[in-house]
Design brief:
By secondary structure, the protein is mainly α. It has a domain of 134 residues: Ferritin. The chain has 5 helices and no strands. Helix 1 runs antiparallel to helix 3 and helix 3 packs antiparallel against helix 4. It is flat, with a radius of gyration of 22 Å. The N and C termini lie far apart (57 Å).
């Protein structure tokens, strides 16, 4: 890496790239066990995108920010299903041979969620604007891929969304109001001004 990066940035990039390799290896290990063609296609697409994104970050740090971040665009026609409908009992498998598509999708989802969180934390430690944007975009990409997997799981009934009674939901969402309109410096002064 170029000397222009700070120690924190170098260590964060090291962690992001290492975790990217780990996630790719996990996806490659799981892929042959996928039964559903829809899930298989999603894992393939995510793996291909992750590889491009990994290569882009390597080029970005080796060429001092010469590359733009790659945005991920997945399916946008999502209609989440809310409520619980006889959810499956969850428990650990006795062996890796018992992994099914739900298990694999859940592992993939967990990888994306973890990567999104880690990358955003890494971006917060970057001083270089290009590196920061690239890692931020990586966090957004992981969040979008996680949503792809979540949508698949939700559609198949593997990731159900519990709801509350309408009265409870309405009470919660209506417990907040808009901020007061302010004058002058953009804040309301709730204490006496100095010298008064």
């Amino acid at each position: 890496m170029a000397a222009r990066y700070g120690a924190h940035e170098v260590m964060e990039v090291h962690e992001v790239l290492s975790k990217s390799i780990d996630a790719s290896n996990i996806f490659q290990t799981l892929r042959p066990q996928v039964q559903d063609p829809e899930l298989g296609s999603m894992v393939d697409n995510h793996l291909q995108f992750m590889t491009q994104e990994y290569d882009n970050l390597v080029r970005t740090v080796s060429q001092n920010g010469a590359n733009e971040a790659i945005p991920y665009s997945g399916p946008k026609n999502v209609s989440p299903q809310y409520g619980l409908n006889s959810p499956e009992t969850q428990r650990p498998n006795a062996s890796s041979r018992q992994l099914n598509d739900r298990d694999i999708a859940s592992i993939v989802l967990g990888c994306h969620k973890s990567s999104a969180s880690h990358r955003m934390m890494a971006a917060l430690e970057c001083a270089d604007p290009q590196l920061r944007r690239t890692i931020q975009q990586g966090a957004i990409n992981c969040a979008e891929q996680a949503y792809d997997v979540w949508s698949y799981m939700n559609d198949k009934g593997h990731y159900q969304v519990p709801t509350m009674k309408d009265m409870t939901t309405n009470t919660m969402v209506n417990a907040y109001g808009p901020a007061p309109v302010t004058q002058g410096h953009g804040f309301q002064q709730s204490y006496p001004a100095p010298g008064h």
